[in-house]
Amino acid sequence: MTVESELDCGSYLRRAITYESEPGCRVPAFLLVPKSALAAGKRLPAVLALHSTDLEYGHRVLVESLRPHYRAYANDLAELGFVVLAPAYPLLGAYHPDLKALGYQSGTMKAVWDNCRGLDLLESLPFVRHNGFGAIGHSLGGHNAIYTALLDERIRVVVASCGFDSFLDYMDGKIDGWCSERYLPRLLDYRDRLGDIPFDFHELLGALAPRRVWISAPIGDTNFKWRSVDAVVRSASAVYALYQKPERLTVEHPDCAHDFPPASRERAYAVLAQELGKDRSRPARTPLRALPQGPETAVLPKVTIDKKRASFVAGRRPFVPFGVNYYRPGTGWAPQLWKKFDLDATREDFARMKDLGVNCVRVFLTYGSFYSEPGILKEDGLRKFDQFLALAEDAGIYVHPTGPDHWEGMPAWKPVAIEDDSTLAALESFWRLLASRYRGRNVIFAYDLKNEPEVAWDSPTLRRKWNQWLERKYGTAERLCSAWQTNAASAFGAIPPPPDADAPLSRRLLDYQEFRESIADEWTSRQVKAIKSADPEALVTVGLIQWSVPALLPGLRHYSAFRPDRQARFLDFMEVHFYPLANGAFEYRSDAEEEANLAYLESVVREVARVGKPVVLAEFGWYGGGKPKFGGGRHPAATEEQHARYCRRVVETTAGLAVGWLNWGFYDQPEATDCSELTGLLTSKGGLKEWGRAFAELSRKYGSSRLSRPREFHGPVLDWNACLTSTAAAKSFREEYLREWRLRIAGR
Question: Is residue 615 within 8 Å of 605, Cβ to Cβ?
Fold first, then answer.
């Protein structure tokens, strides 16, 4: 090594060097050395930083801000305490070796050779740790890092930004960009027969298993297509799965062009630090797991909607989602499932769930662990979710992700109401990123857009959109006054929402409820479109609160505006949640009280089922096995037997109208401030409750059945216009429905 010059950069020294990679060839490079290594005689981890294509500046773009779209990530890494070697790439900048005279047919292989000899150089330095190296690169540097790691196992972690897609997809089959002398000129032989190229990136990534590979593939990259990258990663993931290390190959999709944005770089640096800051021994290759031999170890089949659009199938078999909403006691309330993620405890929970007949787990994703910055999924949360999915696959249980939600805190960008356009745009990006990452993962049953969304009654944004909606509908103030039968309407732009008091069949009130429904429609349709753009085969739903059916409303403003027959246009199947609140909170005081709640339940689920799509009761349950604290402790104690009886009757009452059930909670949650403290199949200590025993029995009965719809119903029909404008009308409907329900039950 020859040091040509040295620059003091504050916390590190930047040395311009050359090193001999072979006789007759010296490679220009920058060597960045943190001063802490020189002062204390410490050995620090080292990274090979590989640059993008730049004909003029070459490797200088790694240490100087010369191009707005090329990032000087070598400097960042040195600031973070890495020793960094940033070599030049052949035939770029000032480095022009005679490839043919040196015996090379491609610049790629010359670059790989130079890089490997650069690792030799790093190993010779007294301040470099000898436990393997990292390689990081953007664009050209991305695939250069992959190629080098393939031929040098000293590289234990690879970061590739905008580095590849399948040769078959590159520039829609125009392979010429790969074929210059500095890259892979022999690919030109395959210009008209790309399928005959003897290797592709899925094989290259698979050959790196189980080493850590982190990939950034921006949605707006016009050079390398992100969907093609996903397909490559999915294929290579099968090899990582054989090593039981699926989480060590990850891809993210920042919402940008061909760039390596700051947030992505920060996550990449964290991956390098995590891998190179571990034990100082060389990473051992984990023994391969045996390939699946039969149905017990087979990959979960994809869940789809059956041809009659009435239920689900998994492969060719009927599938009835029968499971739980998952969170763990001891994680606080709201549960900090991901921040306090316990891999071993979760593995044990999946084993117990499987024993009880659980085949589907609904789990909340959160802003705090997954989406604290718009357009970027958090790597740590994804790593934990990958582990969660792997455990579920091993147990043969499907996962139903819901989110993002506030359980682990709200992010700095402060997502707000349903009607807010910037929040909705950020959610679209979230779902595109998540669905693209997990495209083809059969373990994911379906995506639930949000837990119990509701459109607010009043806000400045709603007022503005309300007036726009009115102007589109009526055109003139005169038409509006005629429809509302008033002479006092304000001018468009100044019309307030109506009071949320009963006004039976008021046209103004009905207009406002319909307007709120249009807000909900846009919110759902745009997110579904985002998911389907990334994964057309994904199933999508939304977990409707029971106030989405106005058979009971505490007040007119509580109507969620997520009207099932409107929402069904966008969703693959329907979900609704239900808790027994027919006459206040259910207290197990009499059969009549239970019957009122079961009749109310049936009316809600029946109304959702009218849309003609499968219905899942995705939250249900109530307290049992003690005296609850919620409600100020005013509710009486309930036995486990009372709890099990009620929950059993929920399933039996809705069977056929619903074709899936997910209990609220696997465990009791003593930290909870609502009924969740006692809704589990298990106590907070893990003891099996009576409801757990009954659940297992019901799972055996319904879990793989083809449920038939109940006979034609001739009872009361919900008058939506009446109930959306009068809580008294809703009460009359429930009373009439209960009378009919009792006659029907008595006649069985």
Answer: yes
CB 474 within 8 A of CB 498: no
CATH architecture of the domain covering 2-276: 3-Layer(aba) Sandwich (3.40)
Single-letter amino acid, residue 20: E
Domain ranges (residues) in the chain: 2-276, 303-458+497-744
**Equal CATH topology for 2-276 and 303-458+497-744:** no
Q: What is the mean pLDDT of each run of 10 residues along the chain (748 residues)?
A: 94 96 96 88 92 94 84 92 96 95 96 97 93 95 97 97 95 91 94 92 96 95 93 92 90 91 90 75 37 42 90 92 96 94 96 96 97 91 94 95 92 90 94 90 96 97 97 94 86 94 97 98 97 94 98 97 98 98 95 97 97 97 96 96 98 95 97 96 97 96 78 87 97 96 84
Q: What's the CA gap between 316 and 313, in Å, rounded?
A: 6
Spatial CB neighbours of 594, under 8 Å, sequence gap ≥ 6: 580, 586, 588, 646, 649
> What is the rounded CA–CA span in Å between residue 246 and residue 263?
23
Q: Which tokens hold the place of 171?
A: 């520039």
The pTM of this model reads 0.68
In angstroms, the CA 337 to CA 403 distance is: 13
- Looking at domain 303-458+497-744, which of 3.30.70.260, 3.20.20.80, 3.40.50.740, 3.10.105.10 is its CATH number? 3.20.20.80
AA identity, residue 148: T
Q: Which of 52, 10, 47 is nearest to 31 (CA)?
A: 47
φ, ψ dihedrals at 389, nearest 5°: -65, -40
Which long-range CB contacts under 8 A does 168-173 form with residues at least 24 apart?
168/194, 168/195, 168/200, 168/228, 169/225, 169/228, 170/224, 170/228, 171/223
Q: Is 550 helix (H, G, I), strand (E, B) or coil?
A: coil
Three-class SS of 52-91: CCCCCCHHHHHCCCCCCCCCCHHHHHHHCCCEEEEECCCC
